[in-house]
User: What shape does this take?
Amino acid sequence: MKTLKKIVGITAAILLLVSCDQTNKQITNPKDYNAFLEIKENKGMGFTLEEIKFWEAKYQADPVQNSYLGIIASNYSTLFQYTGDIKDLYKADDLLTKSNEVRNYAKVGTLRSLARNFIAQHRFKEALTLAEKALVIGEGKAESQKLLFDIQMELGNYDAALANLEAIKDMKDYDYLIRLAKWNDHKGDLDTAITFMEKARTIAEKEDNKTLKIWSYSNLGDFYGHAGRIQESYDSYLKTLSIDPNYTYALKGIAWIVFSHERNTKEAKRIIETIERTHNTPDFLLLKSEISSFEGDKEASKKYKKAYFDMLAQHNYGAMYNKYNTLIYADDKMTANKALEIAKVEVDHRPTPDSYNLLAWSYLKTGDAKKALHIMNEKVVGKSFEPHVQYHLAMIYKANNKMEKVPGLKKELESSIYELGPEFEAKIQKL
Assistant: This one.
């Protein structure tokens, strides 16, 4: 996220002036992305469905060939990326579990595939067990160490994550560079994170690897946005879509620029609702709720939140939306205790600074400001530089009458309004 330490010396007046100037500057143009919204056929998804049909027929004809299970599972994982349908992810889970059982959990490739599936489900501790088993077996050790880095970062085991990162060090290796970028982002050094991601992008372009280019461009779109480089963020998302016109993550990134940077709520909703026709996931309902709230339409905002919870009730998303649920429940005194319960579960599942931040925020909202401050001081301060976390910290300082600590955070937050969203502009000014 943003390198907060570098902006402490900038005055609030200048930051607000820059913010207003950026808000008024038009970056996007519907002519650039309308073609991606109007696509009638998803060729990638069509090919994936044909692959599933082909390999399922082969497996039914010859059930002894267990290698087919992994191929079918891989295609269901790809299908999940296109559809957002949780059933596709669970189908891949079932196939990979069966494949591992047949092999007595002794084949590293199948172990790692199931671990990645568990990461997508936010079942990080189970993923860790599988990845460690793969490492012990020894085959493809570097690939297991890359996977372990990913999981340890999700679990907040940063020393272990760094050890695995150092074990695969190779400045010419794409996989190492994207993880080095993630590590620097975690430390709060966004400029360095961008530098390494750009190096990874160069490798992807030289190799002309479609998958790696999509990953590089979309992640740089995020990084550039966090750094306030909105034009570059927009351009990166467009590059992503030029390779895969159905890459909904990039379209969502453009929708956020339209909403948060340009404050064009009508166009942002149009983009989101077009995406939803083929990729319907709960987070889009929350984004529409946020946009409606900013428009002042509280009833529409409530309607979308209700639709979000209805969708969660209809499908089993496990722990995937625990963070969102905690924040929503904490905002209402009637449900703040429910937020606290979920936050405790999230800390148990993944004891990261961000999870402890949710716990502290929940305690504040249930009336225990002192406990909230204690958790922040012990588990969060200096360990996370996420703007949402910094905002919660400022509010917790304020609740504990530590007003001398608030102005510095306020200055930092004023430069993060794009990332936080337009509604935070007024919230930050009230600090």
User: Anything to note?
Assistant: Residues 281-316 form one domain. The chain is about 75% helix and 0% strand.
